[in-house]
Amino acid sequence: MKKTALLILLVVLLAMPLLAEGNSLKNDREIRTLQVPQDGRAKIGLLMGMPSGVTFGYRFSNWFEGNVTAGYNFAFAQSAIISANGLFTLVNIPIGDAGVMPLSLGPQMNFILGNNFYMDAVADLRLEYSFPDIPLNLFGEFGFGFRFFNGNDWIAWNGGVGVRYIF
User: Fold this and answer.
1) Which of 47, 71, 151, 166 fits as disulfide partner to 162, beta carbons 3.0 to 4.6 Å?
2) CB-based contacts of 126: which residues, under 8 Å, 6+ apart?
3) Helices (H) and strands (E) in the chain, counts
4) Domain count for the chain
């Protein structure tokens, strides 16, 4: 069961770039630049949930963003967490004159450092909104996956809400 679930997660994670909106890999190998209204691709702010801490994101193209979070892990007492993910935009949900809300999916690695060491591989789903008039980004995310180096406890999850300043 564990091997089958891991294989399914691996196939899904490998297929994500092919499902991303605006995927130019079929037509050419160029990653197009992004035009952000605030002339900024970078975001820094706070994430509350599992994990909770400082988060930094950088949008490399119209369909790919990388994020790093460092903070405290409330799900496992007395532990710090460092996580990194790469999110591919699946769809931009239009919300009238206020712009779009990107729905993104991608792999995330969590490194949990405390009395014991754990490592999670998670499929992360994120919905976010950037205000058109002010450099502020709101997001919510949830993910589930597998935990390594923790005996029989092999199910991992993460999720939270956050706010980031765009610069």
Assistant:
1) 47
2) 87, 102, 103, 104, 105, 139, 140, 141
3) 1, 8
4) 1
C-alpha to C-alpha distance for 167 and 68, rounded to whole angstroms: 16
- Residue range(s) defining the domain that contains residue 82: 2-23+32-166
Percent above pLDDT 70 for the chain = 75
Going by C-beta distance under 8 Å and a sequence separation of 6 or more, which residues neighbour residue 97? none
CB contact at 8 A, 138 and 101: no
Q: The CATH number of the domain where 55 resides is what?
A: 2.40.160.20
Q: Mean per-residue pLDDT for 9-24? A: 58
Q: Quick one: pLDDT band at residue 128, thresholds 50, 70, 90?
A: very high
User: Sign of dihedral through CA atoms 134, 41, 65, 91?
Assistant: positive
Sorted by sequence, the CB contacts under 8 Å of residue 74 that are 6+ apart come out as 50, 51, 52
pTM, full prediction: 0.74
